[in-house]
Amino acid sequence: MTYQDLQDSIPTIVDDVTESIDAHSQIRHLDSVSLPNRDNVVAALHLLRQVVYPGYFGKQGLTPKNIKYRVGELLAEAAELLYEEVHCALRFQKGIRRAEQDRESGGSCSDNAAQVVAAFLKRMPAVRELLAGDVSAAAAGDPAAHENVVEITLCYPGVLAITVQRLAHELYKLNVPLLPRIMTEEAHSLTGIDIHPKVAIGRSFFIDHGTGVVIGETAEIGNNVRLYQGVTLGALVSPKKPVGKGKRHPTIEDNVIIFSGATILGGETVIGKGSTIYPNVFLINSVEENSTIKAAPHTVHTDYMI
């Protein structure tokens, strides 16, 4: 095929793709309200990360004398981005069609967006307090960190994932659609840690290593909980029973440690306070407080050992 042949084939391909768009309407978004801009949401997230960790990301050379001005710049820019994207998200939620956008832009969605963004930004001191506890938990829980909070804050994927989830969770509580999930999926793509924005997480939460951690929508996590890589807090799905919309994911109470590869499933499953779940455990039942749960021992083939 020559290049000219390729060019000549484009109109036929366009017709085929257009027919496909008509045939599979569930994966098109036409003649509808504009969706939030993912790039803008991620940009706002980067600004907020500088607010919660000033001097770690973004502009350097901050001092006690100039920090107030820098925070003002960051919050003003973040507010502008978030207002537009929250506005889009709320109009999407109401199902407003494109022809109605101009009329609606000065109405309730606009006012609600401003109110939501103000309420969200007012939560930044509380979010920072929680994140300070998370960083301290990482310093105390990982001997390799040598209590180096700079290394932890700057480098640890678990801290990044938790930071984004705590920010997204605040928007989720304000009933903002789409944006919280965009945020947590950005963190998921960067860290391999998948935490739904709805998840309620207590104080001093630490995820060590982190790759492959999955925490489902209706999970609940208490204070001083530590997870390692490959942990799944998931739903228990039966082929004979449809997945419900209620509590589907487990509850992890205070002071629990869950080691790598453990899988804990089900909305009625509760891991009691002070328990330790060893690597590769599979649980669909609750355990009492201060339990130690180990997986069945594997057979060791000594013939192959060196």
What does this 3D model show about the protein?
It is a single chain. With 306 residues, this protein is α/β, with parallel strands linked by helices. It has helices spanning 3-23, 38-52, 67-94, 101-105, 108-121, 124-141, 149-155, 157-173, 179-191, and strands spanning 194-195, 200-201, 206-207, 214-215, 220-221, 226-227, 232-234, 251-252, 257-258, 263-265, 270-271, 276-277, 282-283, 292-293. The strands form three sheets. It has a five-stranded parallel β-sheet. A five-stranded parallel β-sheet has the order 3-6-9-12-14. A four-stranded parallel β-sheet has the order 2-5-8-11, with no helix packed on it. Helix 8 packs antiparallel against helix 9 (179-191). The model has no long low-confidence stretch (mean pLDDT 92).
How would you concisely characterize the structure shown here?
The protein has 306 residues and is an alpha/beta fold.
Structural class: alpha/beta
Helicity range of the residues? 40-55%
Rough outline: globular
Number of helices: 9
Round the Cα radius of gyration to an integer and report it.
23 Å
Q: What would the average pLDDT be, to the nearest integer?
A: 92
User: N-to-C SSE series?
Assistant: HHHHHHHHHEEEEEEEEEEEEEE
Measure the end-to-end span: 58 Å
Biggest sheet strand order reads 1-4-7-10-13
Q: Approximately how much beta-strand content do the residues carry?
A: 5-15%
Point out poorly predicted stretches: none
Report the biggest beta sheet as strand number plus sense, adding barrel if it closes: 5 strands, parallel
**Overall number of strands:** 14
